[in-house]
C-alpha cells in the first residue's frame, strides 16, 4: 500500500484508497467492485454521516460523492471533507447534471464533476485530468423535460420512503393508484 509520507502520522492518506458515497446501494457496490478490480482499496458509505464516520479509518486519497442523498447533500460532504482532510480529492457524481450543481461542487472543493451513468474508467479519468492540471470538463447540460424531472423526483421520494409506495404517495400528495401507474411507465 502506498502512503503519502509528507503528511503527519495522524493524517496519513492512503494513495490507493477511494471512499465511495452514494445512497444507491447497487451503484455504490458496483463502482467499489470495479475499482477494487483496478487495484484500489475501497470504503463505501450510504450517507453524509456514514462517510464522515469512515474518514478517520479510511483516510482516502480520493472520494467519489453522490450529489443528492437523503439528509445532508454531497456538496455538504465535499465541503466538510475539505475541512477535515484537505489532501483528499473529491469528485461529485450525479444524475442531476446542471451547470449550477457543477459550480456549487467546485466551489465546495470538488476537483471534478461527472454525470451519471459513469463507470470506473470515467471516474478515474476525472481524477487523472485533475492530476494533469486540466480544467474540469464543461458539464454536458441539456435541460430535463418535465416528464424526466417528475420521474427523478418520484424516484427520490420513493427512495427516501424506503420503497414504501403508500408513504411515497402521501409525501407526493397523490393517490397510491396514480403513483403505481406512473411507476409502471418506462423512464422518460
From TrEMBL:
Pfam families: HTH_8, Response_reg. PROSITE patterns: RESPONSE_REGULATORY. The keyword Phosphoprotein applies. Residues 17-131 form the Response regulatory domain. GO terms for biological process: phosphorelay signal transduction system. This is Photosynthetic apparatus regulatory protein RegA. Keywords: Phosphoprotein. One of its GO terms (molecular function) is sequence-specific DNA binding. It comes from Stratiformator vulcanicus. The keyword Phosphoprotein applies. The modification 4-aspartylphosphate is found at residue 66. PANTHER family: RESPONSE REGULATORY DOMAIN-CONTAINING PROTEIN, STRESS RESPONSE REGULATOR PROTEIN 1.
